[in-house]
Amino acid sequence: MYADWPLLSLVIWTPIIxxxxxxxxxxxxxxxxxxxxxxVSIATLLLTLPLYTQFNSGTHLMQFVExxxxxxxxxxxxxxxxxxxxxxxxxLTSFTTVVVIxxxxxxxxxxxxxxxxxxxxxxxxxxxxxxxxxxxLFYIFFEAMLIPMFLVIGIWGGANRIYATIKFxxxxxxxxxxxxxxxxxxxxxxxxxxxxxxxHLRLSMTEQVLIFLAFLVAFAVKVPMWPVHTWLPDAHVExxxxxxxxxxxxxxxxxxxxxxxxxxxxxxxxxxxxxxxxITMSLTAVVYIGFVALVQRDxxxxxxxxxxxxxxxxTLGFFIVFRIMDSAHGEQGAALALxxxxxxxxxxxxxxxxxxxxVGVMYDRMHSRQIADxxxxxxxxxxxxxxxxxxxxxxxxxxxxxxxxxxFMVILASFKASFWxxxxxxxxxxxxxxxxxxxxxxxxxxxxxxxxxxxxxDINKREFLFLAILALAxxxxxxxxxxxxxxxxxTVDNLLNHIANSKL
Amino acid sequence: xxxxxxxxxxxxxxxxxVAGFFGKQIGRSGAHCVxxxxxxxxxxxxxxxxxxxxxDGAAVYNQSVYTWMISDGIRFEVGFLVDGLTALMMxxxxxVSLMVHIYTIGYMHDDPGYQRFFSYISLFTFSMLMLVMxxxxxxxxxxxxxxxxxxxxxxxxxxxxxTAIYANMKAFLVNRVGDFGFLLGIAVILMFTGSLDYYExxxxxxxxxxxxxxxxxxxxxxxxxxxxxxxxxxxxGKSAQVPLHVWLPDSMEGPTxxxxxxxxxxxxxxxxxxxxxxxxxxxxxxxxLSFVIVIGATTAFFMGLVGIVQNDIKRVVAYSxxxxxxxxxxxxxxxxxxxxxxxxxxxxxxxxxxFLAAGSVIIAMHHEQDIRKMxxxxxxxxxxxxxxxxxxxxLIGFPGSAGFFSKDAILIATHNSTVWGSGxxxxxxxxxxxxxxxxxxxxxxxxxxxxxxxxxxxxxxxxEPPAVVTVPLILLAIPSAxxxxxxxxxVLFSDYFDQAIIVFSEHGAMEALAEEFxxxxxxxxxxxxxGPTWLAAAGVISAWYIYLRKPGLAATIRARLEWLYQxxxxxxxxxxxxxxxxxxxxxxxxxxxxxxxxxxxIDGLIVNGSARLVGWFSGVARQVQTGYLNHYAFAxxxxxILLLGWVVLG
Lengths: 504, 650
What we know:
The complex is a heterodimer of chains A (504) and B (650).
Chain A: H1 7-25, H2 30-53, E1 63-71, E2 76-82, H3 86-103, H4 112-131, H5 135-144, H6 146-156, H7 161-190, H8 195-199, H9 205-222, H10 231-238, H11 241-266, H12 268-273, H13 275-294, H14 299-319, H15 321-326, H16 334-366, H17 377-380, H18 382-395, H19 402-417, H20 419-426, H21 428-443, H22 451-454, H23 461-479, H24 482-486, H25 489-500
Antiparallel strand pairs in A: 1-2
Helix pairs in contact in A: 1-2, 1-4, 2-3, 2-4, 3-4, 3-11, 3-16, 4-5, 4-6, 4-11, 5-7, 6-7, 7-9, 7-10, 9-11, 10-14, 11-14, 11-16, 13-14, 13-21, 14-16, 14-19, 14-21, 16-18, 16-19, 16-23, 16-25, 18-21, 18-23, 19-20, 19-23
Chain B: H1 2-21, H2 23-54, E1 61-71, E2 74-82, H3 84-107, H4 114-133, H5 137-155, H6 162-193, H7 198-203, H8 205-210, E3 212-214, E4 220-222, H9 223-238, H10 247-250, H11 256-265, H12 268-277, H13 279-282, H14 286-309, H15 313-333, H16 337-364, H17 382-396, H18 402-416, H19 422-448, H20 456-460, H21 467-493, H22 509-516, H23 520-528, H24 532-549, H25 553-560, H26 562-569, H27 574-624, H28 629-649
Antiparallel strand pairs in B: 1-2, 3-4
Helix pairs in contact in B: 1-2, 1-4, 2-3, 2-4, 3-4, 3-11, 3-16, 3-21, 4-5, 5-6, 6-9, 9-12, 9-14, 11-16, 12-15, 12-16, 14-15, 14-19, 15-16, 15-18, 15-19, 16-17, 16-18, 16-21, 17-19, 17-21, 18-21, 18-22, 19-24
């Protein structure tokens, strides 16, 4: 029944139009705005489900394709489609948005309709980014989603929000401008903006390196990779809880997605040539940032830094493949690394989102993010403490939770490339546990630290609901990742075949 | 059978889930009923499995339960391998766990976290069962980390205590160091065999032997040695071998029943079990075996010495666990895997017994744990006294007791071993016999005999704990006394383990032992001849002389050997070293990278620096835009002249 539906357009435009409706409904009736927003987000989630159930995992070809002429003068098309790489991320987006809407329910009292609208519109833009197959369309969605996020941090953010928003905006914007230059250059060569035309465009090494670097700046900032990561802790600290969740769970993934959709297939030779650069940056993220996370005093900063470290596994998994394919022990392992990076993205979406929500739950009660202001939360919020310890363990990569799967795959695969790469990556086992559990020890355990903690009340039903949903997702993916990994095989294999062929 | 295998771990899991999530609804008695029934079901079914494997000669069961994931053609499965080794472990784990469950009813009677505690210990049992029943490395790692998680929860059970939440974090992190090696070991195995399934890996073990790799450029190392040592690093974490032993004594911060569970049946036995399970790999590398035997011997000897100076009743037992784990590890290194498993089994019974008996003393003493404040408890706690005596005799290897058979087997096997380091190991385990006897009976005499040193109030309230405490003690005392006699023939000298444990003929320690063995009775007689048993006797007599006969003597010796006392009392300064070097430098590195790297270099210099640069440049450029008409006119004319000049002259 879905075969004729323009499903992708529906899941992009339903939340955007819904968001505009919420915006027009205004703040006269905040509870009405909340309800409309929830209905729209759930409708969008339901609409994305057929993308999974009707997905044909046997092919690497694009599915649910929609292709229409848009700006004929420049051969720009409204061209949508998804494969095994983008589909899971779209589901992650629609899922997370529902969670964010629920989490904001009573917490946001100021300009409710605008807040809800911002997240719905952002959802549409993000899904658009994941499904666009025309690079200008991609670029427009890519840039457009910055605006609602900019507003979310700037309006509902903390004390130092202006510095954080400007830093966030400039960082990401400068990166993407270079990408635009690269896209236009390739347009002059192919006469088209379709991403697949770029995939098959022959490029010299110099061209490839320049294009690769342009993409690298754009996507490395988004991921973010060391050393262009410093906007993230500031943005997270100032953002309201919902903003942090979307930022960590979805926006960072767009950087990782960009590497798979653009960098690797368009500039395979430059990627192979410069893989040492990405590997170094990724391992630095894992180790250096792991140490930095250890000494943070602000919980949100700590989780932000831990995000950077975890995203290091994503980029490591994506760019280690060249060394695995060159290894003397056969090609097995390259797909493991790529799929590991993908699983890590999805898992990080659940876990970092949950961690930020946990901090949000405490912040709503105490209005502090400082670790030193807490202590002994388990005494007054036992149910919350159970969730917090669970997500902390997932963050530390405990087997049985989703946090384990991706890291496990990437470490196993990277061993084939080099003992020392695997060694450094596996340090996360120790560092990740150290910074996460040390925070848990100081915040959750111990005697009741002060009267504010004594006055805490445990989570209510609404908070229980969204934490429980995320806990089930984390546990489900950890106990049975196959349904997720299975949809990627064809796409990943095709990508590996593609990048194994030199474009020179 | 398939259903039974699945039901064994799931019965424990079910109890844990019900008690954990619905603790409030089912109440305290509901919680202990559901978990005890769950573990009892696991235990009974495990006994059935053991029977079918040991007596009915059931074939090895090796099946997948479900496919966790397929990626890159590699199948990651969750599945069970049930053979003699697994069946024995299952019975020991569930049996000890059941006793601990029952005992907990009495011990945790007044604790507000009653349901939570039952949920955790059932979850612990489930995790350990998944670990021992696994047929592949993935699930092994699952169980491996899951017992780490539950031990974290249990050691920090009293989460208000600063010492407890420090100890649980320390336990988890130290175990993570081991897991770090373990994970890399799994990666080596996957890389060279392309599989994580035990049997497939064992079949392709030749790939590991044939290959070599360079970790440090210019040095070729055999892959099998690297793989085994990395795996063993994991075992060092779980089974608390030097230098990753530091978490185990601190784990005493948890309630006593979990000390019994951690030290006897779950967690610490995981490493020993794993190496025995991997015997087809370890046999291929003499270097790895030497590494194992040296680490084990060091742990056995030096940790036993620390036991002598401990005054906390639980810590004495804890150090004896470390030392006994060293014995098992030595046996592994000597290729006497079955002897290691045999000692694991007997030790599980008598160590659980000793811990629970210590718990019984602690209840009676109103949570006083210092043995210097006890004494003469024999007449107040007769049952506890007698079971402690049985446990202590088993621990020191009194002829005929369970510990005698397993420990003597290890001693003889080590003596016969030819692997490098076995001479040192033999010296260590032999002197360990004296040390074990000395510290065990030092504690025994100080607690149960001699002068009553407790205060008057405590003395008045001294009485034997209720039956839920004493019955498990008695039930554990029986196997501690007799299980060695009954099972040594089957476990060590029959083909019970069959293909589960592989020993190459060049590692002939067990074969030599088998030649000397002519039934348990003659083994006991042989034990009475001059040798280890005399050393044990000497240890007991020394303890008696120093602590009962001449109570002042201990202080004199201590004064004479002050440096040694300090060294032992500070546990060879491992904790302080770790605290300063590892924890301290990690925090320092973090601070430097954050303050200098992130804040000063990246943000200060580059990010805000470029913002300032732009600001400075626009400030300069702004100077030109003065707004005065004459300045603009001057600039225009100058430009015009320049242009004209260029056109005319060019």
